[in-house]
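pasting for ref
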Amino acid sequence: MKKFFARLGFRKMDEMEQMIAFKAQRNAYGFLILALLVWTVWEGWGAFPTQSKAGPLAGFLLVAAVLVQMLSQFVMERNAVKDDEDSYETMPLLKIILWVCIVAGVLVAVGGAGLFLGIKG
């Protein structure tokens, strides 16, 4: 499989390429969050004067993107210091469980609000 990817021009990135890729991903994530925030506010502002229902898709995507980023950061930090004796990290698993519960609560709340408002998916 390595030979196949080598023929296609894929190779392992060096430190500079990794840094550039990280900054590009950070910029893309920031743009995503900003665009979803603007979309959410725009939908809410447009629905307010007419007393109509705002679409929950933008807000749901915004919350989901932030929660996925936070959960993945917690998991990666936990894996990075898993075998380190000098780590003073206290109960990282508890943090992950807590955030999973928060995510589940948000999803239930969004689903309940959707049912309450009569939004059909």
